[in-house]
Amino acid sequence: MQAFGDAVFDLIEQEPKRLREVTGIGQKRAARIAAGWAEQKAVREIMLFLHAHGVGTSRAVRIFKTYGQDAIALISENPHRLARDIHGIGFRTADLVAAKLGIGKTATIRVRAGLSFGLAEATGQGHCGLPVAELTRSTSTLIEVAPGLVEAALRLELADGDLVADTVDGEACVFLAGLYRSEQAIAGRLRALSEGLPPWPAIDAARAIPWVEARTGLALAPSQAAALRRAVTAKALVITGGPGVGKTTLVNSVLKVLVAKGVAVALCAPTGRAAKRLAESAGLEARTIHRLLEADPKTSGFKRGEAHPLDCGLLVVDECSMVDVPLMRSLLQALPDYAALLLVGDVDQLPSVGPGQVLSDVIASGAVPVIRLTEVFRQAAQSRIVANAHRINGGQMPELTAPDGSDFFFVEAAEPEDAARKLLAVVSARVPARFGFDPVRDIQVLCPMNRGSLGARALNIELQRALNPPGPERVERFGWTFGPGDKVMQVANDYERDVFNGDLGLITALDMEEGMLTVSFEGRAVEYGFGELDELVLAYAATIHKAQGSEYPVVVIPLATQHYAMRARNLLYTGVTRGKRLVVVVGSRKALAMAVRNGGARRRWSKLREWMRPAADGGSAERRTTLARAAENV
After folding, report:
1. Got the DSSP string for 512-524?
2. What is d(CA 245, CA 393) in angstroms, rounded to the nearest whole number?
3. Model pTM?
4. I need a surface site. Which of 228, 400, 417, 534 has the fewest CB within 10 A?
């Protein structure tokens, strides 16, 4: 400024070489100043452009980080790409930007983006694809255009390969190309594994069984001994069963035998809580799937894969019912060709939150050996939680009387308002006073759904008011109020912070000057800027779906007839099995009975089970004919 005065900025932009006239500025430094100014100017221009088109600051920063200096050009060309590329921006927000840029409702580019939006909405319901008629109807409704425009756009998307047409059980369907290829890859790898031999030498089960019984001090039941004989001979195997049937004992026995034979094992589970539980039971290191695969924040993918596989002879994946199609594909890509695979989970629980129903489809295909444990052992049978879980799973009403020492209670409340009041009393006063549990750290309310007076959102506000009322030190963002001591949940995978969807934590600090909030996840401090708090929600209450793979000392489940859309047996069964020491159901007997009777799980449109069948062959003439017919039906 001393050398050039107010003209310095014009000079940097138009004559950067003149910066060398200033003492101490050489060629390299002048180039750095000019480059830095150009970048800052680009950032300002991008921010102004985005603000002018209705995008807030925090999301504008994410857009710039993703697109860099090409942001304006890329968004102007196709604003709907924001929904695909930027976390926190959905089709609706991108559509508002498109409208401000003059893109009409019936524009082909908008309708094509709407198809991906329709399929993305379907993946949120667990589907990998949709029947053509259903996709056309839902997309037409979602983006408010005529079905004929959707059909024309669909033909273009199929021609470009962004979407794929195929059949599921003879029904013409359309898939997002990435999910379609992922299911195909999973099936091919699992079929190859099931036909191979394990990497360890033959094991004499007649000697291994008494050896492992002596090491563990547990006598294996005949069903467990038979399962162990099968497990040590398989390269790919599924172990499934409900609570108290000895899955943990069997898996630990298999691991002890193989580790003694020098087999390198890797253990993983979808959530931090499940991984911790697996490590404690097995006495071996266990990691979340994301940490095992070494999540890469730069690519939002994984460092482990075909080029850099895992170093193990056996991979054990626990709580496999909640592993979706993309994550299973990533796991199998990272599995060495020589290694064996053991999938463990309860197939009767809810399927994954993400697309697909991998465990169910693998079992139903018959292509991989399956051990289904059904015998409930005496010690586990003494738990009302375990006994009632099996009754619910079998379509029977749970025992609602609570004898002395019971770990399962039913608090009747006919009306939702009464249920909400009683639930607050159970969580804040009755359970802590009688059993000594901490209402924030130990008790988890699990709801069938988010909406309604007994949904997770409404109950979170009421529970926060009762357990940790907002004080003067608080921040309000994205519809929530956060303060020190609040229990929160991460709702998106964040590879840079190494926290993932479903992780629970406690807010430990709030810095209003710096605009930062600190959350402790299992003792590890993670910082968030106030503009990034859309990654967190209050978690005094959560949906049962979000609790998959986790266990809590105490689970409280509200159940009312208003949950009609979500009253399903596997939902209730999954919620009850999340409780480790105590389960309390608050609600009406009618709603409970309706949930128990409703054993018909919603269909998920997925092709994995068909791909898994031995006759499936993606390169055959018959296969090409099937694809051609599917495309013709679009």
Report:
1. TTTTEEEEEETTE
2. 14
3. 0.83
4. 417
Contact assessment for residue 349 and residue 243, using Cβ atoms and an 8 Å cutoff: no
How far from 119 is each of 124, 209, 337, 372, 449, CA to CA, in Å? 9, 49, 33, 34, 22
Which pLDDT score is estimated for 624? 45
CA atoms lying within 13 Å on the CB side of residue 477: 20
**Separate counts of helices (H) and strands (E) for the chain:** 26, 23
**Residue of 231, 228, 227, 237 whose CA lies nearest to 193:** 237
* Maximum average pLDDT range among 39-48, 112-121, 319-328, 471-480: 319-328
pLDDT value of position 342:
97
Whether the CB-CB separation of 360 and 351 falls below 8 Å is answered with yes
Provide the token pair at 434: 């009688």
Reading phi first (left if > 0) and then psi (alpha if -120 to 50, else beta), residue 542 is in beta
Inter-residue contact 169 to 606 (CB < 8 Å): no
Q: Residue 284: its pLDDT value, please?
A: 95
**What residues contact residue 394 under an 8 Å CB cut-off, 6+ apart?**
none
Q: CB within 8 A of 298, min separation 6: which ones?
A: none
Q: Name every residue whose Cβ is closer than 8 Å to that of residue 433 and which is 6 or more positions away in sequence.
A: none
Q: Radius of gyration of the chain from Cα atoms?
A: 28
Strand 314-317 and strand 340-345: pairing? parallel
End-to-end, the C-alpha distance of the chain in Å comes to 66
pLDDT in tens, 439-490: 999 999 999 998 888 999 999 999 999 999 988 888 988 889 999 999 999 9
Task: Encode pLDDT of 544-553 as tens digits.
Answer: 988 888 889 9
The alpha carbon of 229 is separated from its chain's Cα centroid by a whole number of angstroms, namely: 34
Q: Alpha-carbon distance 597 to 592, whole Å?
A: 9
